[in-house]
Amino acid sequence: MITKDKIDEYINKIPPAPQALKETLTLLNAGELIKASKAAQTDLALSAYLKELVNKPIYGFANEVTDVSQIFGILGVSGSQQTVYNYMTTLLSPGKWVLFKLNSRSFHELQAKLSKRWEQILQHLSIDDKNISSSIALLPASIIVSEALFNEKIDDVNLLRSAKNLDYNTILTRLCGVGIFDICEQISVKWEMPSEIAQIIQASSGLKPSEDEKINTLGKWMHLLLFYELSQPMFIEAGLNDFIDFQVDYVGDIYEDFATLMDIA
Q: Mean pLDDT over residues 146-153, rounded?
C-alpha cells in the first residue's frame, strides 16, 4: 500500500505558488478584482492560461478575449478565483500522462467544461460564493495526484485492471487507503478552503450524503455534473469515467432539473 506520507508528499506540491499568484488570490479573496487582474498580468504563464481557457468554445465568445482585466471582469470574483485554482492545478500537471490518456489540451478542456457548467448550476441555484465556485477545481487536481500515485504502482494497477476489472477508484482505495473524493478533501484543506467545501465534495461522491440540506443539494448537483462530464467520449477514452460510480437513487429528485439545465435530450 502507498503510505499516507507519500500521498501527503504529492498533495503538498499543490500549489507551487509564485508571489504574483499568491497576491492575485489574496486580492480576489478580498474582492479586489481590478487589483487582482493587475497582479495576474505580471505572471506571463498565468495570463496565457487565462486567455487560453476563456477563449474555449464552451465560453461562447464571438471575438477573442485577450486582456486579463477584461477576462477577470467577465468571470467576476468567483469565476476568477476558480480559474486561478485551475491554473495552480496545471502547475503540477505531468509533462506526459502515463495511465490516463490525457494531454494538456484535453486536461484543460476538462477544467473548462467543469468550471463553466458548475457556474451554470450555481447561477441556477442562486448561489454566489467564491469558495463553492472554486470547489469544482478540486476534482481535476485530484486526478493529477491519482495519476502520480498510480504511477508508483503501475504494474499493480494494470494487473488489477486486467485480472479483476476493478474501477480506478476501487484500485486507488486498495493501494492508498483513500478514494478520489478523499484526495479532493485533502487538497481543499491544503488550499485552506472552508470546511463546508470538504463536506460538499464528500457528498458529491453519492456515498456520503450530508445532513445539511444545502450541502447535500450541492453534492447532488456536483455528482451529476461529474458523471455527465466524465461520461463524454473524450474522457471515457481517457479512462476517467471509471472514477465515478453513478448513484441514481441519490440524485433522482433533481435529475430532470439537471437534464433541462444541461439541455440533455
A: 88
Q: Tally Cβ neighbours within 10 Å of residue 86.
A: 24
Q: Could you give the CA distance from residue 238 to residue 240 in angstroms, rounded to a whole number?
A: 6
pTM for this entry: 0.84
How far apart CA 40 and CA 49 sit, in angstroms, is 11
Choose among 48, 141, 52: nearest CA to 92.
141
Report the run of H or E that residue 247 belongs to, with start and end.
Answer: none
Question: How high does pLDDT run on average in the chain?
Answer: 88
Which pLDDT tens digit goes with each residue over 122-134? 999 999 998 999 9
Secondary structure of 49-94 as H, E, C letters: HHHHHHCCHHHCCCCCCCCHHHHHHHHHHHHHHHHHHHHHHHCCCC
